[in-house]
Design brief:
- With about 450 residues, the chain is an alpha+beta fold.
- It has three domains: about 150 residues, PAS domain (Beta-Lactamase, 2-Layer Sandwich), CATH 3.30.450; about 80 residues, Signal transduction histidine kinase, dimerisation/phosphotransfer (DHp) domain (Helix Hairpins); about 160 residues, 2-Layer Sandwich (Heat Shock Protein 90), CATH 3.30.565.10.
- The chain starts with a helix and ends with a strand.
Length: about 450
């Protein structure tokens, strides 16, 4: 079921229920008013006839004849007069006797002085009537045909009004729902036009302050993020293809050259060595891409633990020196820590090892003496690491693009690289709610500053 139909039906049902309650209340109030009014009419008729019989002493047979004649045209009130000892003095129609008075009723009238009751569809009253120092009991009963006929007409009228009202409610609700949902149909059309080739399209926002405007803005923000992600993915695939093409082409050329003619053992060894170098470069590139993918995980998907940065730096230093004995890595504590927690962070050991390794290795690769000087300190809620080298430094353009994926600066001839390390380090630091920055000037070396929140 469409939202438009659902809203129309629900709105119609809710409003119809309220409408029905109101009409029912009107009918019940009318019925109550009719009943009370007719009881007053009975009381007036009872007093009038008792007055005629007792005070004016109108002959009982004349009054009975008038009552009998009137019954043929109107619903005449049947009145009876009794003494307090339950002796009947007058009755309009003994043979009819609607009320059928008994001693219990007489006792109630004597006790309450006035009562109202129903006898089937007939309404009746009983009351004490005082005349000439004596009390008399007067009863009266009749059927309110006029009142009930009016109520029947009211029921019919209210029923017709209810049916017409529900129909009008449905039609009005349908038209209003269609008008209210018209902008959504436009949003659906525009959203359907967004494809991979037209991901730059956006939904129109007519009123940013209403719910549909907020929905369109939220959807446009989602499209912007998707466009950024989509473009980044295209760039990533293009760069990966380019980066893999070079070592693959070199590997194929090397192997093809080796197969063109018979060679001696030394030449074969040399060809295999070059092929292994190309394969190692591809392996390193693929490892970097895998680590980059892991750094894109959400924090809740990564195992976190308390890590002491001084111990981590010692482990990374040992790891790098085993792989590169010519590297020199100096660790310096700028201030003695009063509490181990000042240099302890909540993080993932594997990812932080990669980030710190990349930063130290970057120092060593682009420094003529292959030296990296790492300073450890803390301030306020941050543990601070500074990675410095004595290399030739970087230009403004290189600093600006340093953390861009696959970017390689003007010094790439000094060391092999794929432009992944710095982008990966930045992602890992940001994943740990930290900050990373680089400071460099041509001829004065480069310093990386990493700030991580300590526990």
């Amino acid at each position: 079921m469409k939202i438009r139909t659902s809203l129309t039906l629900k709105n119609t049902a809710a409003t119809a229920a309220v409408f029905l309650i109101c009409l029912t209340a009107i009918y019940l109030v009318s019925e109550h008013t009719r009943s009370k009014t007719f009881f007053h009419t009975l009381e007036s008729e009872a007093i009038t006839k008792a007055h005629l019989f007792l005070q004016n002493q109108v002959d009982a047979r004349i009054m009975q004849e008038i009552h009998l004649n009137n019954r043929n045209f109107i619903d005449e009130v049947e009145v009876a007069v009794y003494t307090t000892g339950f002796r009947m003095l007058y009755h309009d129609a003994v043979q009819n006797d609607i009320i059928k008075e008994d001693s219990a009723m007489i006792s109630r009238i004597l006790q309450d002085r006035s009562i109202e009751f129903y006898v089937g569809d007939y309404q009746g009253i009983g009351m004490l009537y005082a005349f000439d120092g004596d009390n008399y009991i007067v009863t009266a009963a009749a059927y309110d045909r006029y009142g009930h006929d009016n109520l029947a007409k009211m029921r019919t009228t209210l029923g017709i009004l209810f049916i017409i009202g529900v129909f009008l409610l449905f039609v009005t609700g349908y038209l209003l729902a269609r008008a209210a949902l018209q902008p959504i149909r436009g949003i659906v059309r525009e959203a359907g036009a967004v494809t991979a080739s037209h991901i730059d399209r956006r939904l129109p926002v007519k009123n940013a302050k209403d719910e549909l405007g907020e929905l369109a803005l939220a959807f446009n923000a989602l499209l912007s993020r998707l466009e950024t992600s989509f473009n980044a993915q295209k760039t990533f695939v293009s760069n990966v293809s380019h980066e893999l093409r070079t070592p693959l082409a070199a590997l194929i050329a090397e192997l093809d050259l080796a197969l063109q003619k018979e060679r001696n053992e030394e030449e074969y060894r040399k060809a295999i060595h070059h092929a292994l170098q190309d394969a190692a470069r591809m392996t390193k590139l693929i490892d970097g891409l895998l680590n980059l993918a892991k750094a894109d995980y959400r924090q809740e998907q990564i195992k976190m633990e308390a890590i002491r940065l001084d111990e981590l730096l010692l482990d990374v230093r040992a790891l790098l020196l085993r792989a590169h004995p010519d590297y020199r890595i100096e660790l310096l504590f700028e201030r003695e820590e009063d509490d181990d927690r000042m240099i302890t962070v909540e993080g993932n050991l594997y990812l932080l090892t990669i980030a710190i390794s990349n930063l130290i290795e970057n120092n060593c690769k682009y420094s003529e003496d292959h030296t990296s000087c790492v300073h450890i300190s803390y301030w306020d809620e941050w543990a601070i690491l500074r990675f410095s080298d004595s290399g030739s430094g970087m230009s403004e353009e290189e600093l600006h693009n340093l953390f861009t994926l696959f970017y390689r600066g003007e010094q790439e001839s000094m060391a092999e690289g794929h432009g992944i390390g710095m982008a990966l380090a930045q992602k890992i630091v940001q994943l740990h709610h930290g900050e990373i920055a680089a400071h460099s000037e041509p001829g004065q070396g480069t310093t990386f500053i990493v700030e991580l929140p300590h526990i």
